[in-house]
Amino acid sequence: MSKIELDKTDRKILEILQSDGRLSNQDIAERVSLSPSPCLRRIKRLEEAGVIRQYVALLDPDKIGLGLLAYVNVRLEKHSEGSSGGRLPAHSPRTDFAQAVSTWPEVVACYAMTGEMDFLLRVHVEDMDHFSRFMMATLLRHPAVLDVKSSFALQRIKETTALPLV
Amino acid sequence: MSKIELDKTDRKILEILQSDGRLSNQDIAERVSLSPSPCLRRIKRLEEAGVIRQYVALLDPDKIGLGLLAYVNVRLEKHSEGSSGGRLPAHSPRTDFAQAVSTWPEVVACYAMTGEMDFLLRVHVEDMDHFSRFMMATLLRHPAVLDVKSSFALQRIKETTALPLV
DNA sequence: CGTGAAACATTAGCGGC
DNA sequence: GCCGCTAATGTTTCACG
């Protein structure tokens, strides 16, 4: 569940796989100056420990017609529970909203956040038209939503899935 | 550069590769009811067209000691250019800032945004201590930065790199 | 689009440091 | 403990029908 011990070679392997997840074990082995079998054993160990969570292909949003990236701050209605003490209710506005979000394909990420706004959503859509349809027909129609503030990406300065290896 | 024509089979392939980027061509071929060679030809075409941008391994931030995810809104100083008309200056606060951001490993994403705040940064760090060091020693020390507002992720409701295929 | 064959990659077992 | 060899098995890739 928590932190894993990584030596220099492990970090090198992770760096390589974060930048090219399809390199062959042989190539990786060569780059970390190991023979294929111990290299593969390390990779397997990292996968089983959950350090490597998944291998994926990253697509270009523009090439598949998703030209607009929005970040939407959402504030939910305050639910006055009152009665049942500190217990988490099975159907709070929060859990309802979290469940709904998971089913909306436009929303690729959603975090509960500190600060005034309760949630931050990352939304990929075709254009403003699609975005406003999503807002009117889906997000603003959800009963738990109190208000929202949207911002749109004008320019991608930096964007990587590779985490810094400390 | 712009949109590419995708048929049903292409979309199926992309969906599969977005969820498992290391599946063998043979497996993919089977799942889309094709034999390996036309399947490989399609994948190669999608890679060359730039629809598939990259294959990567996704790591678990907690497992490598990056327990804190922050979103930081940054506002830059207003630069009074005045003289040189509409031309983009080679050293505006904006381009300086964009270049600096690219070199900070904690910042994994940065977008220029609409709205009051000029930039949105996604920042992965170990803990609050590391975060406040990053703020004091790096972000707030940059001459172009006017002010910042930070929020922290309390809970990951949804997080995927897979884009919805329209 | 599919077949087949050569080139290449993966992976388990075993011995050595 | 971790490394590297070997050998069987499986995969990719391309010319050709």
Automatic annotation (TrEMBL), chains A, B:
Listed InterPro entries: ArsR-like_HTH, AsnC-type_HTH_dom, Dimeric_a/b-barrel, Tscrpt_reg_AsnC-like, Tscrpt_reg_AsnC/Lrp_C, WH-like_DNA-bd_sf, WH_DNA-bd_sf
Protein name: Lrp/AsnC family transcriptional regulator
Domain of life where this protein originates: Bacteria
High-level lineage: Bacteria, Pseudomonadati, Pseudomonadota, Betaproteobacteria, Burkholderiales
Pfam families reported in the protein's UniProt record: AsnC_trans_reg (PF01037), HTH_24 (PF13412)
Keywords: DNA-binding, Transcription, Transcription regulation
Chain ranges of the HTH asnC-type domain: 6-67
Gene3D superfamilies: 3.30.70.920, Winged helix-like DNA-binding domain superfamily/Winged helix DNA-binding domain
Keyword Cell wall biogenesis/degradation (UniProt): no
Cell membrane listed as a keyword: no
